[in-house]
Amino acid sequence: MNRTFTLTLFLFFTTPFVSQDFIYKVEPPSWWVGMNSSTFQLLVHGEDISNYDVNIKDERVSLNKVNKVYNNNYLFLDLEIIENGSAFDFDIFFSYEGQVIKKYTYSLLKKSKRTKGNYFNSSDVIYLISTDRFSNGNKDNDIVESMYDKKLNRRKPESRHGGDIKGIINHLDYFSEMGFTTLSINNMLESNVEKPSFEGKFITDLYNIDPRFGTNKSYKELSTKAKEKGIKLIKEVVLNHISDKHWWISDLPTEDWINNESIYISSSNARETLFDKYAFKNDIDAFTDGWVNQKSPDLNHSNKYLSTYLIQNSLWWIESANLNGLFINSYSSISRDFLFKWNKSIQEEYPGFSIHGDDIDNNKSSIGLFQNYSITKGKDKKQTHRLNTKIKHKISSVSDYSSLNDYPLQKAILNSFKSNDLNQIYLNLSQDYLYPNPNNMVVFLDAQNNSSHFLELINDFQLWKMAHAFLMVSRGIPHINYGTEVLLSPNSVQIRDGNIRLDFPGGWDRDKKDAFKGLNLTDQQIEAKSFMKKLLQWRKTCSTLHFGRLKHFSPSLHNDIYIILRYDKRKVVLMAMNVSNESKKFKPDYFINQLNLKLNNKEAVNVIDDHQLDISKNITIGSKSFLLIELYY
Fold first, then answer.
1. Which helix (H) or strand (E) holds 412?
2. Is the alpha carbon torsion for 523, 526, 528, 531 positive or negative?
3. Which residues are CB-contacts of 282 (< 8 A; sequence separation ≥ 6)?
4. How far apart are CA 632 and CA 624, in angstroms?
5. pLDDT digits (tens, 9 = 90+) for 167-189
6. For residue 619, with 0-12 CB atoms within 10 Å meaning exposed, 13-18 middle and 19 or more buried, which class applies?
7. Model pTM?
């Protein structure tokens, strides 16, 4: 018998049967030379992959360890980059009894050069976009046959409407002309579920953009073209859960990959246990380890392989898409230990990188602890999930870069305007000692899951204008929902519902109204857009508002007028608000003189109408009105 034929028969009967594509996933799909850490870990998913020997013959890369888990379909490879210079490819060999069965080529790219100033901060104004509801720039991806949800119906709030990445790219000039400096976009990762898939809440692949929004390439194009316009990009990351349709679920890497042994147990929603020094660990775990809903399995961050996977996933997106920030939803439900490790890893690779966190919480004290949270270490293992004030680790591990949504201030603004009592805003800001870094708090009127503040203000346009002027003057980072500039608002107050995510007028070809071009808008919408543009462009160039100091005066001591001052070495900005039903008079210089500045100039400029005024004279502020001036001295 022919020796070659005999050897072939021998190999056929002694090696496991494998298809040509027996490796299903290798993640991260690529990595970089030049990272501060030369080590990284690959997840390899394939049919009986743990039965194979793994080898790398390239001296530029070291295979430090092959980690096997209970599921034979997974390997976790610990790699170290020895030659950290130029980009290169290397081969990973999978063998059985000395016979190479598969060669997998992996790419190491060159890490980009970055500067600290590339990240968002208090000089920016964030514009929040829900991709599906903003603009349909590519009709070819409206229906993707490989996705479960193939329907498109703009008449139904919970259906997909067709907005995509191309639609956002097409309107980068609009953002720039309006004065928005940063885009924050709701999650766009693959959400291959039945319904609702438009929000991107049910993630089925952590490394790929949903094809109905675009591709990884088009997402990177958005980032690149945005930066050419001077616009930064924030990506939403979901760290605490995935969809029950995620590819992991049918073949979990380990038995403890999902919290509660993969059994649905709803979160207790008892956030207060995180701050309770008397709480038992079981009560804390009932909050952090519980699921959001049955369709969202909760991830177990104490699993070391999963923890590494999620950290590398965030680093991968930061680098591959050249991001300027990350947005974390529901940060309080994420393991304290993991969140610290996650933030620390990001800061080590990208010092000063900006993190924006959201969690509906009206308790200023607890938000302050999250901005400056701590993890207790040591013998008392029951303390590992707790927040306390003894050992402090910032949410991004560096004090200057954590930005959390300021729900208490939002509530104070709305309540002040509705009750005609500006003391609520004053009292709220007077408690800023509870925040480690008030200038990094994100100030807003609408968050992504909130009802429209325009309805909250009882459709009072004057109050709407005053509220936005205050956002621009207050400390922190202003955050504006898409469509706010043209009074886009639902007809009723509905929370966490497609009804609050309306289509941006003009984002679709047959729209009768076009907010981009200003066509067929009402007079009030035109005025609102012009007013917002004026404020945004002014704030964009006003460094006093970016990094200047803040002082304010109690309304109860000054005829119920609330006056806030921002100032630096060159300029003073004064805003006076009156929400009463009668006009008020005041002299601006009385309040400005309290700063003990050497004023050589008495002529200020009204920011809204560009008129000059003498600050030494009485100024009248009308009912439910405000004055916003700036003065060089």
1. helix 407-419
2. negative
3. none
4. 27
5. 999 999 999 999 999 999 999 99
6. middle
7. 0.92
